[in-house]
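Incident log, structure service

09:12 report received: a user says their structure output differs between two submissions of the same chain.
09:20 pulled the input from the user's history:
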Amino acid sequence: MPKRILVADDSAMIRKCLCRIFEIEQDYDICAEAVNGEEAITLAKQHKPDLIVLDFQMPVMNGIEAAYELKRIMPDVPIILFTLHAETMKDSMGQDSPIDLVVAKSDAVHIVGHVRSLIPV
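09:34 re-ran on a clean worker, output below:
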């Protein structure tokens, strides 16, 4: 059974690109797409993903705020922060961070490898 991934990014283009990347992969399916952190939480409760990809800068609730709430309700679900500010975010993440991995948007071509490192199939 394919692993289920939730993607949250306020950019429709980036969401569609990520979805397309995972559509090609047999071992992964996109279970839901959110445009902000609040919607990501609602959809995660509904779809119960195996992994969540969150953009950092989103309206209503950003990726970090959403990640804290998602880890509270789904502590075992890995979270990737997918951001233009990867280096800054990596440097500022503390021990209690809800983020399992920070991936630069410029590294999108390797996103499947990053996902496999967190949820092997």
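09:41 both user submissions now match this output. Likely a transient worker issue. Closing.
09:42 reviewer note: The chain has one domain: 3-118. The helical segments are 12-24, 37-47, 63-73, 86-92, 111-118.
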